[in-house]
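Fold this: U11/U12 small nuclear ribonucleoprotein 35 kDa protein
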Amino acid sequence: MNDWAPIAKEYDPLKAGSIDGTDEEPHDRAIWRAMLARYVPNKGVTGDPHLTLFVARLNLQTTEEKLKEVFSRYGDIRKVRLVRDLVTGFSKGYAFVEYKEERALLKAHRDANRLVIDQHEIFVDFELERTLKGWIPRRLGGGFGGKKESGQLRFGGRDRPFRKPINLPNMKNYFYGEGSAEKRNWSREGTRDWRSRDRDQERSREKRWPERERSWTWGESERDRDSKEERKEERSRGRERKDRDR
């Protein structure tokens, strides 16, 4: 917890795939690809990485001239590099802006993020490819940010920083016999008393059962006797009526 920070100080694909940087297993295949990747930064890129900003989510129609016009408000620009497709020459939607002074870099980093250029809200951050140790680009399963639709969210960057981990205290559960010896003994004795009490009840039921059966059979015989006597009386009454009629 003392070393926790919302922004990653060193890139780890496994931690970047975790909302708080505490996951121990990758939850998507892209993290596996990033963990197995052996990425080397492009040596053909020139300029000072500590004075360079990464500008993403650009309109595909935005040009270098437009970027120079916007970012020159914050200080003197040394170079603007709009990344284009090698085959088609079309913009890929991100660029790098190198300043001459660190003060201009920090000001642009603070104020230019979420600025709207050509109807697009842009994202601005420091260049990480040459400054963050262990960096893996997005195309290899790394990077930061990402869309929920793709299912490859990455945390630890400016766009989606780490959330502070929640450390729950270790609470003892007495229900499962954890805790002091007295508590455990009390729970064991309680279970023994409960079992013995059930056994006594079962025995008492077994004793009462034959008595109940006798009472039930006795009740049935009495009823039968009463019904027989009533039938005899009705038969005798019927005979007397017949004799009178004769």
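Confidence is low (pLDDT under 50) at residues 171-194, 214-220. The longest helix spans residues 181-245.
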